[in-house]
Amino acid sequence: MLRARDAMKNEIAEGAPKKVDGFVIEPFYSDNAMTASRISLYPRTGTLVAPSILSSDFGHLADEVSAVEQASADWIHVDVMDGRFVPNITIGPPVVAALRKVTTLPLDVHLMIAEPEKWVDAFADAGADVITVHAEACTHLHRALQAIRARGCLAGVSLNPATHESAIEYVLSICDVVLVMTVNPGFGGQSFLPEVAPKIASISKLLSRAAPGALLEVDGGITPEKAAIVAANGAQVLVAGNAVFGRGPDAYADAISEIRTRANDALGVVS
Question: Which of 167, 173, 183 is nearest to 86 (CA)?
Answer without folding.
Answer: 183
